[in-house]
Design a protein that fits this description.
Layout lengths: L6 H18 L10 E5 L15 E5 L2 E8 L6 E5 L12 H7 L3 E5 L8 E2 L10 H15 L4 E5 L2 H12 L4 E7 L7 H4 L5 H5 L2 H6 L2 H9 L1 H12 L7 H8 L7 H12 L10 H8 L8 E6 L9 H4 L7 E7 L6 H4 L1 H11 L3
Parallel strand pairs: 1-10, 4-5, 4-7, 7-8, 8-9, 9-10
Antiparallel strand pairs: 2-3, 3-5, 3-6
Length: 347
């Protein structure tokens, strides 16, 4: 779910961000963010309930399942989902963008839906760089040179990493909750009890009891996260069940547990990603045009917009959505998310 951020960690990243930005780009290159509230009734949320037939493509170590909408020749928008959610977070966003002429591509991450590993011996690795490398391989497999990126939760972190490490492949970006690239050394530092409380599920997943508990109660666990992360979102059972089917993937439990244990430094990643992780640990600035979004009812731990503003050195805006919008912002406020994609495409 939400990344390893809190007020203490964000203060660390905020200082580091300004230092990196000043050294590498100069303070004058940092675009001043606009911060304004958008009041949006969720009139179109839930209007659509399905995609056209899902597709599959072999990409890197995976056979990736994905949904697609819009004209083949349109500018590409790549939308990446989070945990514990799936591609249906974008089921109402995709038609808006497709009608505007974009080719919208929404892949299942490793461990979700119809995405499968090509080889049994491949490590079921959930580290942050692996997920981003998957998306670059996915773009390569589809012959997509550049894309506008959008994401929230794990998906926001993934598109942030893509923008930081492969900016030449990224046209622009919409990122919910801002800059989410993690630093394992920072995550090892203990926090005040109230801050630690928000991360209860990470500590749970660090234990064998937690792994077994998540495996035995995956859907109930995910529903609890949905409810606490979006406390005012009145999703129905049909909406939840559509996404929960994605958790039946044979690698879902292993990917989830490895992701959170890796963040806390309890397990290793793969050596082939070491160089990427070394770069990411430095908190690289993001140079592509970006709009960051936040909901006013996000119940998951998340940074304040002022903490990550200096991480974006290109043209930049921040938008806070009012009206009870929670963590799964694209599904709760599809019009606002789609509008951000349309707007950042014009930057």
């Amino acid at each position: 779910m939400s990344p390893e951020f809190n007020h203490q960690r964000r203060r660390f990243f905020g200082v580091a961000a300004m230092t990196v930005a000043a050294a590498e780009f100069g303070m004058t290159a940092i675009a001043k963010a606009q911060s304004f509230a958008v009041s949006l009734p969720a009139a179109k949320a839930g209007e659509h309930t399905s995609f056209e037939a899902l597709k599959q493509v072999k990409a890197g170590v995976l056979d990736i399942g994905y949904a697609e909408a819009g004209p083949k020749g349109g500018p590409v928008v790549l939308l990446v989902h989070g945990w514990p959610y799936d591609i249906y977070s974008y089921v109402d966003v995709a038609p808006i963008l497709a009608d505007a002429g974009f080719r919208v591509i929404i892949p299942y991450l490793r461990g979700y839906g119809t995405t499968r590993f090509l080889a049994e011996e491949t490590p079921r690795n959930g580290q942050q760089a692996a997920l981003a490398a998957d998306m670059i391989a996915f773009m390569d497999a589809l012959g997509v040179e550049k894309a506008i990126l959008g994401g929230y939760d794990w998906g926001a972190r993934t598109v942030n990493i893509m923008a930081a490490l492969w900016p030449e492949r990224c046209e622009a970006m919409v990122s919910v909750s801002g800059y989410l690239i993690g630093n394992r050394e920072v995550n090892k530092k203990p926090l005040p009890p109230k801050a630690e409380l928000s991360w209860w599920y990470q500590f749970y997943f660090a234990t064998e009891r937690g792994r077994l508990g998540y495996a035995a109660n995956t859907r109930d666990f995910a529903k609890l996260i949905w409810q606490t992360a979006s406390p005012t979102w009145k999703f129905d059972d049909e909406t939840f069940d559509r996404s929960a089917d994605a958790f039946d993937n044979p690698d879902h439990i292993e990917i989830t547990i490895h992701n959170y244990r890796w963040r806390l430094g309890l397990v290793d990643g793969e050596a082939k990603y070491d160089a990427y992780e070394k770069q990411l640990a430095m908190g690289p600035a993001i140079t592509i045009p970006t709009i960051t979004l936040e909901g006013d009812a996000n119940g998951a731990p998340h940074p304040q917009p002022s903490a990550y503003r200096g991480k974006f050195s290109g043209k930049y805006e921040h938008r806070t959505l009012t009206g009870g919008i929670g963590h799964n912002l694209p599904q709760e406020a599809p019009q606002a998310f789609a509008q951000a994609i349309l707007d950042v495409a014009k930057f």
